[in-house]
Amino acid sequence: MKTRKSLNRRILIYVGGSSAMFVLLYSFIIAAYFMFGVKVNNKIILANEARAYADAYVHDVHTPKPERSFLKSYRNEKNIPKALLEIFPLNERKHGDMRLYDAELFGNIGNYEFEAQQLKDYCRGVRCEIFLFYSYHLKDDQWLYLTMGISPEESEKEHHEEFDAAFYILISITIAFFITVMVLTLALVRNISQPITALAKWAQELKSDNVDDDLPNLRFTELEVVANQLQFAFIRINNVLEHEKQFLNNASHELRTPIAVLATNLALLEKMRIKGSDSEAQDKVIERLSRAIENMKQLVQTILWLSKNTDDLPAEETVELDVLIEQIINDNRYLNEQKAVTVTANLHPVSISVSRSLCVIILTNLIRNAFQYTHQGTVDITVQSDFIKVTNQCFNANNDILPAEELGFGLGLELVRRASLKLAWRYESDNITGGRSVTLYF
Questions:
Q1: Residue 114 pLDDT more than 60?
Q2: Do residues 360 and 418 lie in contact, with contact meaning Cβ atoms separated by under 8 Å?
Q3: Which end of the chain is more exposed for a tag (fewer CB within 10 A), N or C?
Q4: 338 with 376: CB under 8 angstroms?
Q5: pTM greater than 0.85 (yes/no)
Q6: Percent of the chain predicted with pLDDT > 90
Q7: Which of the given ranges, 61-70, 105-114, 310-319, 403-412, has the highest pLDDT on average?
Q8: What would the pLDDT profile of 128-182 be if each residue is shown by its tens digit?
Q9: How far apart are CA 399 and CA 408, in angstroms?
Q10: What angle do CA 409, 415, 417 make, to 5 degrees?
Q11: What number does CATH give the domain 227-309?
Q12: Distance CA 116, CA 31 (A)
């Protein structure tokens, strides 16, 4: 399934979205710190005023209450405007505690909207948005209450240049942050996409003749892991394909002999029929045809069964190996006709429980392969309690040892190896002086 999702686009979206969320969160944090700063700064101012009055009150109870353009104070609770008492109930007062009320954050309490008009004096005639209420416990169980009102509009007028400068600084920081993040993101995307592109190009150009070459520089360990897995998978697939290619080549080579026998003997049989040759000669030709057909049938049956790649085996039964091998030797003696081949059979009585059909395939291919590839020499067949061994030694007309490539590596041995794996038999094939020795351990 083809996907339209782009890794580069996804990274840009994620980083851009994360940056926007970060800026938004940063704005909330700045606002929170602003309110915190307002509260701390004004609490210090109110606390200093209250302590100064308290010190003076100790010496003179008639000391005037602190009054400033931004500050109002009360000693008598009855003098506190109702609007303030709605916002700051006195039953919640604590010594040295300052409470803050923000109309925009907390909404309106009680009849604040109506009575707020009475509190304009706290903000120089405009509507206050923020109120501060400070409680201080004096001697003789007396209380001092200090109040302040803050209007953003009034503050903005007084600190217009500072607010503008702060705003422009904030905007500049935000823009610079976004530009920096996007530049770094683009650099990251490019840094990631280049090795990914190199990996894709390397995988596209991967062939059997360059699969063992060194990997390209992919920069990242994760990409190297992917490349290694691709390389190993390609090597495994290439080995399987090469193995199957060799298997098919061997099969086609092995089938040439029975096909040639069929063609030759059919032509001979046709000539005999025309000439009216005796039936005995024709019977021999027909016998050779039958054997060739049987060989082809068995070969094709073996190849098809092995190609199914299944672990299901035919039913097991008791097989007398010495008797079966004697029968196979007799059935394939025709392969040694008109050849100087000596067959020696050392067969001990051995019975095993095994799939008979598969056992026949293995032993027939093993013995026939030895007969077929031994043009002059000896074939020794041994059966013991736990193994079967077939050894052939080949010589030319001068009794010289033949090179290894002429000793018989055909399809027969490959079929024996594969079928032995199905039976969980151990297969060993060794080069010996002038020949080959194959041993099956069961």
A1: no
A2: no
A3: N
A4: no
A5: no
A6: 12
A7: 61-70
A8: 778 889 999 988 888 999 988 877 665 555 555 655 676 777 778 778 877 887 7
A9: 18
A10: 85
A11: 1.10.287
A12: 24
CA angle 123, 124, 128 (to 5 degrees): 25
Is the per-residue pLDDT at 428 higher than 80?
yes
Q: At residue 19, what is the residue type? A: S
To which residue do tokens 């109870």 refer? 61
Per-residue tokens: 326: 């004697």
Is the pLDDT at 186 greater than 90? The verdict is no
pLDDT band, residue 102 (cuts 50/70/90):
confident
CA–CA separation, 38 and 60 (whole Å): 32
Domain boundaries, the chain: 7-170, 227-309, 313-441
> Apex CA 314: angle with CA 305 and CA 425, to 5°?
80
CB atoms within 10 A of CB 418: 19
- Of 139-143, 333-337, 346-350, the range with the highest mean pLDDT is 346-350
Q: What is the pLDDT of residue 111?
A: 44
Q: Report d(CA 338, CA 371) in Å as an integer.
A: 12
Q: How far apart are CA 130 and CA 147, in angstroms?
A: 11
pLDDT bucket at 253, cuts 50 / 70 / 90: low
Contacts of 178 (CB under 8 A, 6+ apart): 19, 23
Q: Please, are residues 85 and 118 in contact by the beta-carbon 8 Å criterion?
A: no
* CA distances from residue 101 to 29, 46, 76 in whole angstroms, order as listed: 19, 15, 22
Lookup: tokens for 88 = 């700051």
